[in-house]
Amino acid sequence: MACWKSRSFVRAALVVGSVVVNVFLMGTLHAQGRGRGPAGPPPTPKAAAPIDLVGYWVSIVTEDWRWRMVTPPKGDYASVPLNAEGRKVADAWDPARDEAAGEQCKSYGAAGLMRVPGRIHILWDNDTTLHVDTDAGTQTRIFHFAGQATSSEAASWQGYSVARWEPMPAGRGILGFPDQEVPSGALKVFTTHLRSGYLRKNGVPYSENAGLTEYYNVTREANGDQWLFVTTIVEDPKYLNQRFITSTHFKKEPDGSKWSTTPCTSR
Question: Which residue has the higher pLDDT, 4 or 264?
Answer without folding.
Answer: 264
